[in-house]
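Section 4.2 – Deliverable D4.2 (structural model, holo form)

The reporting period included a commitment to supply a predicted holo structure for the target in complex with flavin-adenine dinucleotide. Inputs used:
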Amino acid sequence: MISLSMFLGQALERSEITVATEAGGTVVTTCRDGSAFCLDKLVCATGFGSQYDNELFRHLRRESTLQTGYRGAPVLDDDTLRWMRQDGTPSRIAVSGVAAQQVLGPFARNVIGARRAGELIAGLLESELKMKQRGVSRPEI
Ligand SMILES: Cc1cc2nc3c(=O)[nH]c(=O)nc-3n(C[C@H](O)[C@H](O)[C@H](O)COP(=O)(O)OP(=O)(O)OC[C@H]3O[C@@H](n4cnc5c(N)ncnc54)[C@H](O)[C@@H]3O)c2cc1C
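Output (structure tokens):
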């Protein structure tokens, strides 16, 4: 599980995110150890195990406004691997690993899939950063 900040990345390594909810312009996450974080974006780099049965994905399916498809798989934006909301806009949550297999195919579970997911997600973050640096404002998602 990767967060955008190294500090948070280190903190999250010690626990498991069980709940993630979009709230205003942030994603609020709660961990099994009771800690909670407010993030700009959340990348669920949760690996190759079945993502549709774990606590985090069960919560996201049950509680949120995110779109799910066959067997609860996340409905993703093909270019950025962001999880789409039910209203058709991309959310602040992106995925890699098996959770991205609808876009990346069977290689999503392997290193080559993880690398491709990384390229797509990093591309999105890079273009957002460049726009911010140029002072180009676009509607906050
Ligand atoms: C025995 C074996 C052999 C393999 N051989 C190959 C091979 O030869 N070639 C190949 O390409 N691939 C191989 N793979 C697959 C390869 O290991 C994966 O593709 C790679 O590890 C994926 O990296 P990742 O960072 O996406 O996920 P992972 O390395 O699985 O990391 C995901 C991390 O997210 C954490 N996590 C999950 N859910 C949460 C949560 N809710 N909150 C916080 N953290 C969470 C997990 O604990 C884990 O640390 C093999 C796998 C196994 C098991």
